[in-house]
Design goal:
The chain is of the alpha+beta class and 254 residues long. It has helices at residues 2-39, 84-90, 105-108, 119-124, 155-169; strands at residues 40-43, 46-49, 68-70, 126-128, 173-175, 186-194, 197-203, 209-211, 245-253. The strands form three sheets. A five-stranded antiparallel β-sheet has the order 5-9-6-7-8. It has a two-stranded antiparallel ribbon with strand order 1-2. It is globular, with a radius of gyration of 21 Å.
């Protein structure tokens, strides 16, 4: 009898847990749907999510791809300073070389700038010069500087296109590893790929990693809201795209 009661209690507990999980999942789906409605825009009759980094269809055919400029920020803004606890949570032992840029949401997330770069513009530390087009940041597609755009969502195609941009900008890129330390005029970035998009992360001066999902704000947190100490192991499964393919660490010059 006691065994039977325990069994029934276990079943009841499992059902309660399942119902709770289903309810939580339902709430998350509803919240994510709100996100979709918030971030979905339209370009020439085609809807797209501004958290994606690839340009809306037809956008690159209508603009000058070289209307971009370097972002030069010499000092930290007090609004951007993060706590020692946050820094400690982001540090993973991955070395920095001194050429990394500071984490500056006060600049990148400013309404006057947020739409002028996507993840690729952010890791290059460049921004569109166009202040009138709400999609201006989509000029930053691998290969944009010479018009030799990437042809597939593969590591090989994307890096080939990036190399042409580096040549045009007088900069360099090379494959790297977790443990390699950049030189004093270099910093580390990382590539990840989804079925229909790509994404970049960059290592900041404090040792942590940050990224800019499409034309939205920069952040140092992953899809689960955790601090990013390593883009290879962080949660990259977002509601709008799952960047499950690891594209590698790279070091680029400033």
């Amino acid at each position: 009898m006691l065994r039977k009661i325990c069994g029934l209690f276990l079943i009841f507990t499992m059902m309660l847990g399942l119902n709770t999980s289903v309810f939580a999942a339902s709430e998350r789906i509803q919240e994510n749907q709100k996100d979709v409605d918030k971030y979905v825009q339209e370009y020439k009759g085609v809807k797209y999510d501004i958290r994606m980094n690839s340009a809306p269809k037809g956008f690159l055919n209508s603009i000058d791809l070289k209307t971009d400029e370097s972002v030069e920020l010499n000092t930290n803004d007090e609004k951007d300073l993060i706590t020692n606890n946050e820094v400690n949570m982001m540090r993973s032992g991955m070395p920095t070389g001194g050429g990394e840029y500071s984490y500056r949401p006060s600049y990148w997330n400013d309404p006057q700038n947020i739409y002028r770069a996507n993840c690729y513009g952010y890791v290059l530390n460049r921004i569109s010069s166009n202040k009138s087009d709400p999609n201006a940041g989509y000029i930053f597609q691998p290969g944009y500087r010479k018009g030799k755009l990437y042809t597939a969502y593969t590591q090989r195609a994307i890096i080939k296109a990036v190399k042409s941009d580096m040549e045009s900008l007088g900069r360099t890129i090379r494959s790297s590893s977790y443990s390699e330390k950049p030189k004093s005029n270099e910093y580390k970035i990382a590539l990840v790929i989804a079925n229909d998009d790509y994404h970049w992360y960059r290592q900041d001066r404090d040792g942590g990693w940050s990224h800019k999902p499409g034309l939205t704000g920069i952040t140092y947190k992953d899809a689960s809201g955790n601090y990013i100490s390593d883009p290879k192991t962080c949660d990259r499964n977002y509601y709008y795209a799952n960047y499950s393919t690891w594209g590698g660490y790279y070091i680029i010059s400033r």
